[in-house]
Amino acid sequence: MRGISRNIIIISLIAIIILAGIATYLVISTQRPAPVQRVSEIKVGIIQPLSGGLSTIGKYNLWGAQFAVDEINSRGGIKSLGGAKITLVVGDSAGDPSTAAREAERLIAVENVVAIIGAYASSNTKTVSDVCERLKTPCLNGDSSSPALTRRGLQWFFRTTGDDDLFSMQHAEFLKYLNSTKPGSIRTVAILYEDSEFGSATAEAWKKYMEQAGFKVVESISFRSGTPTLDSEITRLKAANPDVLLVAGYLSDAILIQRTMKKLDFNPKAVLAQDAGYINPSYISEVGPLGYYIFSREVFNWDLFDKVPGLKDVNDRFKAKYGIDMDGSIVRNYVAVWVLYYALEEAGKKASPSDLQAFREALRDALRNIDIGKGVLPVPWDGVKFDETGQNIRAKGIIVQMMPDDGKYHTVWPKEYATRDPIFPMPRWSERS
Amino acid sequence: MALSTETIIAQVIVDGILNGCLYAIIAIGLAMIWGVVEIINFAHGEFLMIAAFLSYLLYIYLGLDPILSIPLAFITTFALGYLVQKTIINRILNAPFLSQIFATFALVLIIRNGFFVSFGPDIRVITTWYSEAVIDIYGVRISLVKLLIALMAVAFTLILQLFLTKTYLGTAIRAIAQDRVAAQLMGVDIEKVYAIAFGLGAGLAGIGGAMLASFYYIFPEMGIPFTLIAFISVVLGGFGNILGPAIGAVIVGLTQGLGAIILTPSMKDIVVYLVFLALLLVKPTGIFSR
After folding, report:
1. How far apart are CA B34 and CA B5, in angstroms?
2. Which uninterrupted H or E stretch holds A424?
3. Radius of gyration over alpha carbons of chain B, in Å?
4. What are the residue ranges of helices labelled H in B167-267?
5. Which of A366, A377, A393 is nearest to A114 (CA)?
6. pLDDT by position in tens, chain B (length 290)
7. Residue contact A267–B143, C-beta within 8 A
8. Are the beta carbons of A106 and A133 closer than 8 angstroms?
């Protein structure tokens, strides 16, 4: 017995010593002034899902960011810092929120990056931005759309892409535009949404913005994603007889909605979807004529290459290097790095990277004051300007419509990026061949 | 173009009954396994999914009509069920209840993830000339293929009933369901009958899957909602005879539809469970219990 209890005491002591050592190291490492950075290099952290189910997307996103870094460096780096080059330091979130947070800590405390870009999945971006907030490091997100991210009162978080709330607002604008082409044709809308975070947040925003725009919401119906039938739901919508149907659903729901609409001969003048299921490649390839004339929100579309200034040139060079066309996520990561670059130029005038924390603060202030106009970045936005929540208020989505001649989505709004005119109202099921 | 209330109610009732008939075939299969082999088969929806994929592959590679693939789907899933019973379930018949549950649950994970690896998470759709054909009766719109499937479901149920009452094997299955020991004493080869019963149960899920393939979407997790509905139907109707779960399934289909219309659609599953609980309070062993 005595031997055992003595062993326990010894083991406990060793454990305490180890823990104390770790604690001390952590305290020292976060308080110790960071080693003086040679100003020939500025380290920027990027977190993406590079393993696990999202690894393909994560890899592409990283390419997009790396491509921008190479462009910036080859054009002379950060001029206000004497031509310092940007180095990307990569963290792998594996698509998991807690891993993403650990990687953020490592990049900030060990790698001494000046800022972090990431982290694709909204759940991952949430934890990464929390760590950045705690360790006072700017966090720039280019590719997550949950409205909740910019509603947490964070001081160090910035998002360049639009969120689902902004996109819903633009839906209302788009409907007003459609209404102007055929005055008086849209008075009522109905909402059909899946009942998890994505659908509910979208539905809430829709209600708000549609009513503001003067459209009456005559029916709002939720369903559980993956439900085996939507017969009653669509029957109710048909009974409500709205001019426009707004839909937020995932992949399986999108197919079922279209099939049930046809079966029940439900004919709104337009169907407007909040991307998700409606832009999934597998939906686009399987839905066939059932999906014609449907409008969806997008951040990007294949036909933008000739419409957005500079995009085709960037894409051609990107494709030559990596062998694939850019998509919405790749472009948004490419753009995030460029936005950070403009902020770095400004921060370099006010602080020196040799005092890391002062430089991070200067970088945060530069992001707060950034003002990028239209046409500078190869995206269909009005530019970049952050509000007090860190949301880019100049971001924009586009509206695409699946056209009956080729079964592809074409950009129909905003006007300046449109490659086709919207087909409105869409033909009734009975009028289609 | 407003709909009259009568049309709405008629539409929902028709859809509810047609959906219920499809649920019935799947539920009878589950009841077969539950009532005869006395094992709770979580992998029921996986047999459905395998059959749907089989229909899809036959359609893509051989151009076979999904309706014509129903017998093939039945034979394939029957064989799979027979094998599962022979190789796995028969070994754990006397094992603790938890082991039995985990065995079928393991089967779920193996099959489902196997399909995820082979086919990916994408959905697949078969579009035939009749996938979207509709009969319009005074504004009530009836999907042709769902009507056909409902009629087939009724026919299969009758055939199964005849098989269970008129053949030696069917009688043996019923005998085992009633009293395992007595049937064994009468010389029934219990392991063989079990394998056939499990095969039948899986085969019925397979029929359901092949039926779904012609108008639903196909992907590795498609069995989940149908398994859940089948469980509720079986508990509702009891598994004393095959009519019980069938009626239970139609009740579920109708309740879903009417609940969505009378209350709100988001409540439709809740209504099903409330009806389910209410009926259980009245008849704890199911409506048509022995």
Report:
1. 41
2. none
3. 19
4. 168-178, 180-185, 190-213, 223-237, 243-262
5. A366
6. 567 888 889 999 999 999 999 999 999 999 999 888 888 889 999 999 999 999 999 999 999 999 999 999 999 999 999 999 999 888 888 888 888 888 889 999 999 989 988 887 778 989 888 888 899 988 899 999 999 999 999 999 999 999 999 999 998 988 888 888 888 888 888 888 999 999 999 999 999 999 999 989 998 889 999 999 999 999 888 877 888 899 999 999 999 888 888 887 778 888 888 888 888 888 777 776 65
7. no
8. no
**Residue with tokens 């599953």, as numbered in its chain:** B269
Distance from CA of B86 to the nearest CA of A (A): 32
The CA distance from B61 to B25, in Å, is 27
Other beta carbons less than 10 A from residue B2's beta carbon: 8
**Cβ contacts (< 8 Å) between B224 and chain A: which residues?**
226
CA–CA separation, B257 vs B272, rounded Å? 10
How far apart, in Å, are the Cα atoms of A367 and each of A79, A325, A344, A372? 17, 29, 9, 11
A-B C-beta contacts closer than 8 Å: 94
Number of helices (H), then strands (E), belonging to chain B: the values are 11, 4
Q: Do B8 and A239 touch (CB under 8 A)?
A: yes
Cα B233 to Cα B91: distance, rounded to the nearest angstrom: 28
- Comparing CA positions, the residue from B21, B16, B47, B40 lying closest to residue B235 is B40
Q: Which residue has the tokens 């029916």?
A: A219
- The maximal CA–CA distance of chain A, rounded, in angstroms, is 92
Question: Distance (Å, rounded) from C-alpha B107 to C-alpha B47?
Answer: 10
Mark yes or no for CB contact A290/B132 under 8 Å: yes
For A232, the closest of B1, B224, B265 (CB atoms) is: B265
Task: Tell me the sheet residues that pair with A159.
Answer: A141, A391
Amino acid at A328: G
d(CA A253, CA B219): 12
- Alpha-carbon span A205 to A168, nearest angstrom: 6
